[in-house]
Amino acid sequence: MAKNFIIANWKMSLGHEQTLDLVDQIVQQIQPSDKTEIVVCPSFISLVAVAPKIANSGIKLGAQDCFWHDEGAFTGEVSPLNLKEIGCDYVIVGHSERRGYLNETDAMVRQKVKAALENNLVPIICVGETLEQRQSSSKDFIIMQQVNKALAGIELTAQNQLIIAYEPVWVIGSGQAVEPSEAEHTTQVIRQVLLDYFPLEVINKRIHLLYGGSVNPLNIREFLSQPTIVGALVGGASLEAKIFWQLIKALE
Ligand code: PEP
């Protein structure tokens, strides 16, 4: 049976000590399961300290971003090679907060996807429409365009996996998720685009489609019971060990 994914994006919400406390609580409460892949994405400053804490827990480590070169004169950037070296298996790319606040473009997202894959990191590519784009009825077109631009010329080796998370920008952090059936419609649109790039077998086995945006213990089950949605990218509800644990329990 295919695995579910629960990916915690802690953004810049916690200090270093708070992050370590949360990780300790999560490791104590959460048993590894072969049904669900649990990934935590702390901020860069805490990655090195979190890695040994989760090393034998079955929980995986992810970063919130990476640069597209492995090394060089790129002040302030973080190398995907170094992320792999310190124990990351996943990296979020193209989160709407980076697209919005830092003008990250689709072309930059594509370069990051390529660099992540070359370093055998699983890129978690975030796509989603703003409220204005939605209101102008261009949602599906925007999503197709973001996926197309992120994947142009990208090849997957036999080791590579890919995650695409549909995250409607206007529901992130709002407490109000979209209807699961609508998220399912959008992940089906994404799957349709994927068919232009990869064989069906690769899509079925190594590309995973997630929903993100105000997921909580009460709604997660309905999202993950949709046919093409196999996981959730979670912000707010992943910041407390008890609620995080409830998210995982809700799937059992
Ligand atoms: C996110 O920012 O990726 C996210 C899904 O946040 P939230 O769950 O808080 O809406």
What does this structure look like?
- It is a single chain.
- This protein is an alpha/beta fold and 252 residues long.
- The chain has a single domain (4-249), classed as TIM Barrel (Alpha-Beta Barrel).
- The protein is built from 11 helices and 8 strands.
- The chain has helices spanning 16-29, 44-54, 80-85, 96-101, 106-118, 131-135, 139-151, 180-194, 200-206, 220-224, 241-250; strands at residues 4-9, 36-41, 60-63, 90-93, 122-127, 162-166, 207-212, 231-234.
- Strand 2 (36-41), helix 2 (44-54) and strand 3 (60-63) form a beta-alpha-beta unit.
- The relative contact order is 0.15.
- The protein binds phosphoenolpyruvate.
- The tally of structural domains comes to 1
The CATH homologous superfamily is termed Aldolase class I
From the 3D structure, determine the CATH topology: TIM Barrel
Task: Give the end-to-end Cα distance, rounded to a whole number of Å.
Answer: 14 Å
- Which H/E pattern describes the elements? EHEHEHEHHEHHEHHEHEH
> Largest sheet, described in full?
8 strands, parallel, barrel
Poorly predicted tracts of residues: none
Summarize the topology.
Blueprint: E1 4-9, H1 16-29, E2 36-41, H2 44-54, E3 60-63, H3 80-85, E4 90-93, H4 96-101, H5 106-118, E5 122-127, H6 131-135, H7 139-151, E6 162-166, H8 180-194, H9 200-206, E7 207-212, H10 220-224, E8 231-234, H11 241-250
Parallel strand pairs: 1-2, 1-8, 2-3, 3-4, 4-5, 5-6, 6-7, 7-8
Bound molecules: phosphoenolpyruvate.
